[in-house]
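Private note to self, pasted from the team thread so I don't lose it. Backbone tokens:
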């Protein structure tokens, strides 16, 4: 699955093993490995985490 953010795709291969959030940064580990994504603000990071958990 992928999440579209500012015209670029963030690819996520479920299952997600761990999620770490620090203000505007979200790091997660899926079956492809660990990824770190920085968002413009905390609200957008929270929306991504909500999508990541519910997808």
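Design output:
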């Amino acid at each position: 699955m992928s999440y579209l953010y500012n015209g670029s795709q963030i690819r996520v291969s479920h299952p997600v093993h761990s999620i770490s959030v620090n203000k505007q940064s979200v790091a997660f580990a899926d079956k492809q490995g660990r990824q770190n994504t920085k968002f413009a603000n905390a609200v957008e990071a929270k929306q991504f985490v909500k999508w990541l958990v519910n997808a």
